[in-house]
Amino acid sequence: MTSRHPDPNPEGSSGIRASGTPALDHPDPPDHWTLPPALDAGRRRLSLGGPYAALYESRPPGLSRFDSNAHPLLLIHGVHLTASAADAAPLFVRCAANRPVLAVELPGFASSSRGHVPCTPELMAAAILRAVEHVRMQGLRSPVDVVAMTLSCEFAARAAMARPHWFRSIAMISPTGLEGGRVEPYDAEATAGLPLMRGLLERLPFVDPLFRLFIHPSTVRSLLRRLSGLDRFDRAFVEYGVAAARRAGACHASLSAFTGALRTPGVVELYARLPQPVWIAHGVRGLSADYEGLARIGPPSHWTVDVFGTGAWPHFEAPELVFSRYEAFIASLGAGLRASIRPEP
């Protein structure tokens, strides 16, 4: 394992399958969406056999000038009340000029399907596989590099174990499951959820409108501050989060997360099984600052761990530093991609 200290400033094993539904050839027209785009990029729906995921994609102008074997970058937002592809905006903007970049919005969040979506780790992993399947059907068949955030790191690990040859590297920003107190056996079929509590909350009269009443800018700022360790947020980011969380049916994914239905017991064991090179980036403030579990498991030699003197969203708080460390990780893979993800001048 390569580890840096804080800056002063087997395939099919999970039983997950890609949906097999052909990808859409063109982005949906704007009137198909009830929420404005989170990123300045094309947006489309990817069917999951009922629910759907929203996918943003961008290719640099004149892609033919780039290596036809370029590895696409797939970004996956975190899991929280106002989650959307905007969580990944700093990385998306920096990388989109130089390589194919995609950002998926998982079912139940932002522009993806809402309502009584059966939010499970398996569904989230299937959405990730569906996004990779889509880009492969577009002719970019090289394994992808993935950057996932917080709880979505668990879903990315499931997907990467299900189709290991589709993934070249796995980057995790503030991953869950590495807390010092979480010593559990891995069980791919179980969750840490409280089904009785979730069922009770789901049956409350008017749960959706009551949830929307709870969502306002001051509440969102407070929750984001507590989650990330950041003191300030861009006004547009907060307003978009409010709009996303007020969509009809938005409460259901949040209730799933709140009651633990999206967490996998012993997921650290799944992380340790990943055959791909792994990059872990985390801060020292906020709710996602406990990583004592890393020392307990003795991370494998193909892992790189970068610790930043930030909160749980280092790519927002120290974007230049985080980007340069990620670039160094990509360069270490030996594929000569340093120029393909270079920072903006």
Task: Give short descriptive properties of this protein.
345 residues; alpha/beta; Rossmann fold; 9-stranded mixed beta sheet; 12 helices
Percent of residues in helices comes to 25-40%
Number of domains: 1
Looking at this structure, what is the CATH superfamily? Alpha/Beta hydrolase fold, catalytic domain
Strand percent estimate: 5-15%
Q: Tell me what the CATH architecture is.
A: 3-Layer(aba) Sandwich
- Give Rg in angstroms: 19 Å
Question: Mind describing the biggest β-sheet?
Answer: 9 strands, mixed
Strand line-up across the major sheet:
1-9-8-7-6-4-5-3-2
CATH class: Alpha Beta
Low-pLDDT ranges = 5-31, 335-345
- Mean pLDDT comes to 80
Molecular structure report:
The chain is of the alpha/beta class and 345 residues long. It has one domain: Alpha/Beta hydrolase fold, catalytic domain (Rossmann fold, 3-Layer(aba) Sandwich). The chain has twelve helices and nine strands. The protein has a nine-stranded mixed β-sheet with strand order 1-9-8-7-6-4-5-3-2, with helices on both faces. The two termini are 31 Å apart.
In short:
The chain has 345 residues and is α/β, with parallel strands linked by helices. The chain contains twelve helices and nine strands.
Which SSEs are present, and which pair or pack?
Layout: E1 2-4, E2 42-47, E3 52-58, E4 73-76, H1 89-95, E5 101-105, H2 121-137, E6 144-149, H3 152-162, E7 167-173, H4 195-202, H5 207-214, H6 217-228, H7 235-245, H8 251-258, H9 267-273, E8 278-282, H10 292-297, E9 303-307, H11 314-317, H12 319-332
Parallel strand pairs: 1-9, 4-5, 4-6, 6-7, 7-8, 8-9
Antiparallel strand pairs: 2-3, 3-5
Helix pairs in contact: 2-3, 3-9
